[in-house]
Design goal:
Layout lengths: L13 E10 L4 E8 L5 E9 L2 E4 L3
Antiparallel strand pairs: 1-2, 2-3, 3-4
Amino acid sequence: MGKINCSDDMLFEKTVASRTVFEGRVFNVEIKDILTPEGNSSTREIVRHPGGAVQESV
């Protein structure tokens, strides 16, 4: 396998906006608008609970 030539900046997404759409006793749901390292915009739907976090792609 060849070496991948990229900097650490290519590994992170930038959050443009974030909002909580549901707050419950057991978990919360957030929606984040992000910018990828390539410059594309996307949305992340994140479910958070006290024991950890889950991200599911649909």
